[in-house]
Design goal:
The N terminus is likely disordered. The strands form two sheets. Strands 2, 4, 6, 7, 8, 9 and 11 form a seven-stranded antiparallel β-sheet that branches. Strands 1-3-13-12-5-10 form a six-stranded mixed β-sheet, with no helix packed on it. Helices cover about 10% and strands about 40% of the residues. It is globular and about 45 Å long. The chain contains one helix and 13 strands. The longest helix is centred in the N-terminal third of the chain and has 18 residues. Strand 12 and strand 13 form a beta hairpin. By secondary structure, the protein is mainly β.
Length: about 210
C-alpha cells in the first residue's frame, strides 16, 4: 500500500490508525454524521463564499483540529503526500468531486488532488515520502450514496501531493473539498495541521 516507502511524519490521529477496530470505526462515523448534520449550515469559509457544505463530509469537519502531520528536514523540491481526508456521503444522490484547495500553505505547492478508492487496505492513510501507488485523479471521481458509512466501506480518500517550494517552515491549516451533486456546487472544509520544514524544526502539529 505504501509502495515501498516509509512514513516520514509524526502522525497524530489515533482513531484512524491501521487496524482500527470496526465497531469503533462505526461509532466514529455515527457520531460524525450526527454532529456535522447540525453544524453544516454554520460553516463559513474565509473568502466569504456562501457555497454550502452539502451532504459530503469527513472526520474532523466542524470540530477542533484532531489530526496533523509534521514533516521536518526536507529539501526545497521534495514532494510528500498528505492523506487523512476520508470522504463520507450522507446523501442518497451521487456526488462528483471537482478539486481540493487549502488554507495556508505559503511556501508549498499543492498539486492536483488524487484519490484512493474504498478497496484500500486501511481506513485512513497518512503521509509518505512519496505518493502511494494505485491513486487516480480526483477530478470527476464519483462518490456513491452512503459512501464511507458501511462497516466494510472505507469511502474515498483524498491524497494531496505537496512540494516544498521555498526554504523555511510552512503550514496548511485546512483542506477544502469542492464537489457537485446534480450540478449544484458544494464544498466542505476539514481543519488540519500539516507542517513541513527545510530544517530540523519542531514540526509537531499545533506548534508555532
Amino acid at each position: 500500500m505504501l509502495d515501498g516507502s516509509s512514513l516520514a511524519a509524526q502522525r497524530i490521529h489515533r482513531a484512524s490508525e491501521p487496524g482500527m477496530d470496526r465497531s469503533r470505526r462505526a461509532l466514529l462515523i455515527a457520531v460524525l454524521v450526527i454532529a456535522t448534520a447540525g453544524a453544516a449550515s454554520a460553516v463559513a469559509l474565509k473568502d466569504g463564499s456562501e457555497t454550502p457544505p452539502g451532504p459530503l463530509t469527513a472526520p474532523g469537519v466542524g470540530a477542533d483540529v484532531e489530526d496533523g502531520v509534521g514533516v521536518p528536514s526536507r529539501k526545497v523540491g521534495d514532494t510528500f503526500c498528505y492523506g487523512m481526508v476520508a470522504v463520507v456521503s450522507r446523501s442518497n444522490r451521487t456526488a462528483v468531486l471537482d478539486r481540493v484547495t487549502v488554507e495556508g500553505g505559503e511556501g508549498l505547492r499543492v498539486r492536483p488532488a488524487r484519490v484512493l478508492g474504498p478497496d484500500r487496505a486501511d481506513y485512513q492513510t497518512s503521509t509518505w515520502t512519496r505518493c502511494p501507488s494505485g491513486t487516480r485523479p480526483l477530478q470527476g471521481q464519483r462518490v456513491p450514496p452512503g459512501s464511507g458509512q458501511g462497516e466494510d466501506d472505507f469511502g474515498v480518500e483524498v491524497v494531496l501531493p505537496i512540494t516544498i517550494a521555498a526554504p523555511g517552515k510552512h503550514r496548511i491549516t485546512a483542506t477544502v473539498v469542492h464537489y457537485a451533486v446534480d450540478g449544484k456546487a458544494y464544498r466542505f472544509t476539514q481543519p488540519t495541521d500539516v507542517v513541513a520544514c527545510t530544517y530540523d524544526c519542531d514540526s509537531r502539529p499545533g506548534g508555532r
